[in-house]
Amino acid sequence: MKKKYIIFGMTLFSLLTFSKTGFAEKMDFGVQTIPSENQIDKTKSYFDLRVKPGEKQTISLSLSNSSDKEITVAIETNTAVTNRNGIIDYKQSDVKADNTLTYEFSDLISGEKKIVLPAKKTKKVDFQLNIPKKEFDGTILGGIYMKKIETEQEKEKQKNVQIKNEYSVAVGVELSENDNKVKSELTLNDVHPDLENYRTAVTANIQNTQPKLEGKMKVVAQITKKGQKKVIHSTEKENMKMAPNSNFDFPISWDNEPLEPGVYTVNLAIQTNNGKWQLTKDFEIKASESKALNSEAVELKKDNQFVYIVVGSLLVVIILVLLFLLSKKKKA
């Protein structure tokens, strides 16, 4: 069977792709996908498979060690999620499943969790897919995430290094059974005060309730005080993506201002390659929440209103005293 070679460092254009992370100049290990006969689009660098109910199938990767030392690679098979940056993520293994998800990819695949690659050697790694017996519409999405395990010597070498090398690769796996159309649906769930990189913010949980990828996603978020029209905080972000049946917390900047207790309204204008949505929700910032978060926030702008009141009051008192003294002097 002909193997498809993946070039690392390629620009990512598609919704699903082969991805890697790390700051190293050279990867210690490489990955080749071995496409199956039921690969829908053989030009794709990930597994794009048309499967059947109740089917069992083996998919394979070829891992190679280009270094002159033995390496160990940890392997995870994870359900795709959407992280708070609006990126489809295959690395997270301990995330609670979305409440609209019927089948978790991680429950449908099995395989080796760790392999040892001798220096300058290549090894084929197999994974077993067990497709649900009941037919499903749309897409089940997951990924095979591989990460080099550092040796004790490598850990010691990078102990005091600020930017550390990390060798990891993720290969997407998309499963579908038919071409039935699935209508897109995005909803707005919980909205609450939060810290984003230790800066005050409000997060709005956006949910993709359907087994369908959402791409080219743009969100314009505006916050007002409840019952008012004046926008007090806003955030805009585009070129995001959402995994099927997933949700993520979209952060809305509070512009380094203190979180003030009160009732607010968030308005979201969302656009993807599949549709548009206008979502609105009222939310409350409680005094206890604002106090706790403000105390942990960095670069928080100080509220000088109290200082202005005190200074202004002192000026008024001084002026009144001066006027009283001048009046008394004239009478004398």
Give the proportion of residues in helices. 10-25%
Q: Sum up the overall morphology in one term.
A: elongated
Q: Distance N terminus to C terminus? A: 113 Å
The main sheet comes to: 6 strands, mixed
In the CATH classification, which architecture of the largest domain applies? Sandwich
Q: Tally of extended strands? A: 20
Order of helices and strands: EEEEEEEEHEEEEHEEEEEEEEHH
- Provide the residue-averaged pLDDT: 88
Q: Would you tell me the structural class of the helices and strands?
A: mainly beta
- Measured on Cα atoms, how large is the radius of gyration? 28 Å
Overall tally of domains: 2
What would your notes on this structure say?
Mean pLDDT is 88; it is low at 1-17. 14% of the residues lie in helices and 45% in strands. It has two domains: 4-176, Immunoglobulin-like (Sandwich), CATH 2.60.40.10; 186-301, Immunoglobulins (Immunoglobulin-like). Strand 16 and strand 17 (231-242) form a beta hairpin. It has helices at residues 105-108, 152-157, 287-296, 305-331, and strands spanning 4-5, 18-21, 29-34, 47-50, 56-65, 71-79, 81-82, 88-89, 109-111, 114-117, 122-130, 140-149, 168-176, 186-196, 199-208, 214-225, 231-242, 246-253, 262-272, 275-285. By secondary structure, it is mostly beta strands. The chain contains four helices and 20 strands. Keywords: Membrane, Signal, Transmembrane, Transmembrane helix.
